[in-house]
Design brief:
Elements (H helix, E strand, L loop, with lengths): L3 H9 L5 H26 L5 H20 L6 H6 L3 H12 L5 H12 L7 H11 L1 H19 L2 H6 L1 H7 L5 H26 L4 H28 L4 E4 L9 H6 L3 E5 L10 E2 L11 E7 L2 E2 L20 H21 L2 H6 L8 H29 L2 H22 L8 H7 L18
Parallel strand pairs: 1-4
Antiparallel strand pairs: 1-3, 2-4, 4-5
Helix pairs in contact: 1-2, 2-3, 2-11, 7-8, 8-16, 8-17, 10-11, 11-14, 12-14, 12-17, 16-17
């Protein structure tokens, strides 16, 4: 689904609408994420809520399957496989009364200059090894998809509620609804990206979006740094949990929780620092435990905090919440849809589907790496250092894209291939093709 849909949209769209239509796919994805978050918030109080969520997800899937049955095949795919009459019929059904003969001749002309280097991965590898232009396009496409994930987007989408609770919003239902508000930003600002993609262009939109993402990651890190500095101090604990010095570090661990002094009745095995005797009432100890309570029943009066610290001030939390909203707004305008739009445009016909599949695989592998390491990074370093790390990756990616990301607005898929004939080309200059791919 993920590689096929943007590819199909790009191949059936006219050049002046291609960016908008491919970005529309991302809009619907972010819309689905937002409405799923809202349903999760509504159903969060029900013990069977997760069952309802799984059942509701089947409804749009069935509608999409039915819609697929009425779609014509991609004309470019039909031309590539020698089905001329079927390609004419497909173009006629898509373009209507509009003259499409020039478009058809352009597809056929590209095909005559391409020799089949083989299908699938073997053909793509042959093209990459023999032709620098294909190599540049594939590297750019994979870097875009990897950078999209290493900016930390799915950390925010997957762990949004956890991040909001770490910011000081401790009530679980409030955190879930705030997560829905943050997801709304991703959905709404994708409309902005759709509006700008064929007006501003892919290059400016991507670079501007990434610049905003970089700044917001720095702000997020700064917000969490202030939250940690203001966090209640830890004056002791049990086992490995005793190593933490602040409540923020304690609850960031997946196996420790915080118990304030006011709720403390430590058993003999608890190591409590002497400074605790003169500590403020907001200080406490760090115990091993779970969300249900400490492993050692020594935190009374409902004072146990496992996912978030007791609030001393809401100011850092509000800054973090605002930064999350703006971060997703910046991401949604460019870095959300543009990697998919650009990947659907930049490859020659003979390797297009395989190259897009490769870039999509890079996206999902990067997604897996980021989502699996987020909590471990927080525990090994800190929350603020983790977001600053994402910001550093975004900065490196920004520098790379400044020199290697071309503008493809308004070009046909065949003309875009010419951009990559020139090393470091960022604008289209007609060149004589030097390859028979």
């Amino acid at each position: 689904m993920f590689p096929s849909v943007p590819l199909y949209i790009a191949e059936v769209s006219p050049p002046d609408m291609r960016g908008t239509l491919v970005s529309l796919n991302t809009l619907l994805v972010t819309g689905g994420q937002f409405f799923a978050t809202v349903f999760a918030a509504v159903l969060s109080s029900s013990p069977s809520g997760w069952r309802y969520m799984l059942g509701l997800a089947s409804l749009p899937a069935m509608l999409q399957f039915i819609g697929f049955l009425f779609l014509p095949e991609s004309p470019r795919w039909l031309v590539q496989h020698g089905q001329h009459d079927a390609a004419v019929a497909a173009l006629a059904s898509i373009r209507g009364e509009k003259d499409f003969q020039h478009e058809l001749r352009s597809m056929e002309a590209e095909l005559t200059t391409l020799s089949r280097g083989g299908a699938g991965i073997a053909g793509l590898w042959t093209a990459i090894s023999q032709f620098a232009s294909v190599r540049r396009a594939v590297v750019l496409g994979c870097v875009l998809q990897m950078l999209q994930q290493f900016c930390g987007i799915n950390t925010v989408m997957y762990y949004g509620v956890t991040i909001i609770r770490l910011a000081g919003f401790t009530d679980s239902h409030v955190a879930i609804w705030l997560g829905a508000v943050v997801a709304l930003s991703n959905f709404l600002f994708t409309f902005v990206g759709i509006y700008l993609v064929d007006r501003m262009g892919r290059r400016q939109l991507t670079l501007g979006s990434l610049l905003g993402v970089m700044v917001m990651l720095l702000v997020l890190g700064a917000g969490f740094y202030v939250a940690e500095v203001q966090s209640p101090p830890v004056h002791g604990g049990i086992d490995a949990c005793a190593d933490f010095t602040t409540c923020f570090d304690c609850v960031a661990s997946t196996s420790c929780g915080f118990c304030p002094v006011a709720s403390l009745s430590p058993p003999p095995s608890v190591v409590v620092d002497a400074a605790s005797s003169s500590s403020t009432s907001s200080s406490g100890v760090c115990y091993p435990g779970t969300a249900a309570g400490p492993a050692h029943a020594a935190c009374a009066g409902g004072g146990w905090s496992f996912d978030a610290c007791p609030n001393t001030t809401h100011a850092p939390g509000y800054v973090i919440l605002a930064a999350l909203f703006v971060y997703l707004a910046c991401f949604a305008t460019g870095m959300g849809p543009m990697p998919w739009t650009i990947n659907a445009e930049i490859y020659p016909l003979s390797v297009r589907s395989t190259a897009i599949s490769l870039a999509t695989a890079v996206n999902w592998i990067s997604n897996l790496v980021v989502s699996l390491t987020f909590l471990s990074l927080i525990q090994a370093t800190s929350t603020y250092a983790t977001f600053w790390l994402y910001g550093a990756v975004a900065t490196v990616g920004f520098v790379y894209l400044v020199y290697h990301l071309p503008e493809t607005k308004g070009l046909t898929l065949e003309e875009i291939d010419g951009v990559f004939q020139v090393r470091g080309g960022v604008t289209y200059e007609p060149v004589a093709t030097d390859r028979t791919l």
